Amino acid sequence: GISFKADKLMKLQGLIAHIVVLASLLLSAQGWAAAPILDSTNAAIGFGFTGATLDITYTTVSLTNPVSFVCAGAGDATSSTTHASGVVHGSDTYTELPSSFRHDGWDGVSVWYKINPTIQAAATLTITFPAAPSITSGIAFVYSLVDQTTPFGTAALNNGSSTAPTVTVTSGVVDDVIVGCLSSDSASGITEGGTLIKEQQNIEGDTSYGAEAYAGSTSQAVAWTQAENTGWAVVGWSIKQVSGGGGPDTKAFYKRRIQ
Q1: For the segment 213-238, what is each residue's pLDDT rounded down to a tens digit?
Q2: What one-character DSSP code corresponds to residue 174?
Q3: What residue ranges in 101-155 does DSSP mark as E strands?
């Protein structure tokens, strides 16, 4: 009768729910979670000369699980002078990514971050240096769908004098995004090997800065090319996806459904 048909329909609905959850578990097990996404529209860059602070206009908007990053670069013969001492964006104070500073004898670069940044339209981002470097630069950008507990991996650092600035970042997770920042002496500009985030070429004819990204990989060379055989410093790191792609706890959900 009608009650029998209703009972069969409920069982069928329950079976479909189990299949959907199992499919989600299989996708997660295969590493098909959502990778972090760059907000390329609001990425910002700026540079200055002989000043202990650099101001950049930077906008952060409403995103799911965002983390904002700032590459703070500078050119000066004194290593400590090129190592930024603080980054503030409106009401947000940033933290330096551990062990992320590199200096090559002239160019220095460090990375700063803010988990779940405040939504701020065209607010001033200020990078502070302990002294006044000859040249300063800042690149600011935000990724969404980033793990809010462990947003990044260990920074990889390198410096040298060549036409091929590079550093290899080991992530171990296919869906992590690999990013890097470059500070270079190049007067002929730089060419990114990955997807461009932002770059500033030939500042005063002798310095270039850039940030780039690569799709998820367990190990990735973050690389640029430059026409000159000249000095450079590179920092690379992985941006971690939200566990399970930011979706529900499918294992707990499935357990509840079959009890």
Answers
A1: 999 778 899 999 998 899 999 999 99
A2: T
A3: 102-103, 107-115, 120-128, 135-144
